[in-house]
Amino acid sequence: MMNKPFAHLTKITLGLILAATTVACNNNPSKTPASKSGNDSAATVSGGDKIVYVNSDSLLANYAYFKDMQAKLQEKAKKTQGELQAKGNAFQREVADYQKNAATMSAEQRQSTEERLARKQEELGKFNQNANQAFASDEAQEQEKLYNKVSDYLKTHAKDKGYKFVLTYAKGNPGVLFADESLEITKEVVDGLNADYKKEKK
Q1: Helical residues (DSSP H) of 63-182, grouped into ranges
Q2: H helix or E strand, kind and range, residue 197
Q3: Where is the signal peptide (predicted)?
Q4: What's the order of all strands across the beta sheet hosting 163-169?
Q5: Other CB atoms closer than 10 Å to residue 143's CB: what's the count?
Q6: What is the three-class DSSP state of 167?
Q7: Is 60 exceeded by the pLDDT of residue 35?
Q8: Where does the pLDDT of residue 179 fall: very low under 50, low under 70, confident under 90, or very high at 90 and above?
Q9: Distance between CA atoms of residues 16 and 149, nearest Å
Q10: How far is it, in rounded angstroms, from Cα 33 to Cα 55?
């Protein structure tokens, strides 16, 4: 029995994307303490460097580009799965026909049919493998696009806001053990990403 590919699409997260994002916003560190209210809330370290964080779970849940990307991958997986299922069902029908008629076949006919079915089974296995590899490649490319979009946006956004470090927080895989909610900038990042994506789609 062939394994069904794409039974579970890989959950794409931004943990690695954001965890290592360190942004220098200007050449001279600000000496001004960070405000404790609004979007300017930020922790400071020596030299006035500002540290903020993004909740990657919330970002992905609200980023329109990510939703469209997931939908596109799921549609592609569904189509490929349908092709594999159709080929698999056709092969199973051929096997069933052979088993039904084998008793009335000559030894030569049985051998020829079995060899043909063996070749088809091998071809089907290769098709299955190639389909999985092609999907994995497509998914990797989409993840790279997502990485670039978020990373590029954060570099510009952090520079504009004066943030020196942008950390990430995810409930299942936290890169930060504790983060004060006043330091979270997820909404402003999501709003900015969605605004940019909306312009791209026009």
Answers
A1: 64-101, 107-161
A2: helix 186-201
A3: 1-24
A4: 43-44, 50-55, 163-169
A5: 18
A6: strand
A7: no
A8: confident
A9: 14
A10: 24
